[in-house]
Write a structure and sequence with these properties.
Helices cover about 70% and strands about 5% of the residues. It is mainly alpha-helical and about 90 residues long. It has a two-stranded antiparallel sheet. Helix 2 packs antiparallel against helix 3. It is built from 5 helices and 2 strands; from the N terminus they run αβααβαα. The chain has one domain. Belongs to the caleosin family. It comes from Brassica campestris (Field mustard). InterPro entries: Caleosin-related. This is EF-hand domain-containing protein.
Length: about 90
Amino acid sequence: MFSKYARTVPDRLSIGELWDMTEGNRDAFDFFGWLASKVEWGVLYALASDKEGFLSKEAVRRCFDGSLFYYCVRNYTEMSEYRSYYY
């Protein structure tokens, strides 16, 4: 997946590259599957993308092994500590 669609950075996907990936992997006349795929990858992008707007290979791996939410909690607490310190 990353070797085929990650053109900007080899181990991370942008939102446009995610869109191209879901377009390239869809089945004909499976309208629900098209929508479900876009929603699934969009939610993953919203949860796990970095500050530069890329979804890393590690974040996708964490989604499949179940450690994504622990990673998100750690990142959001770091962000909230940063915000409370500077605002």
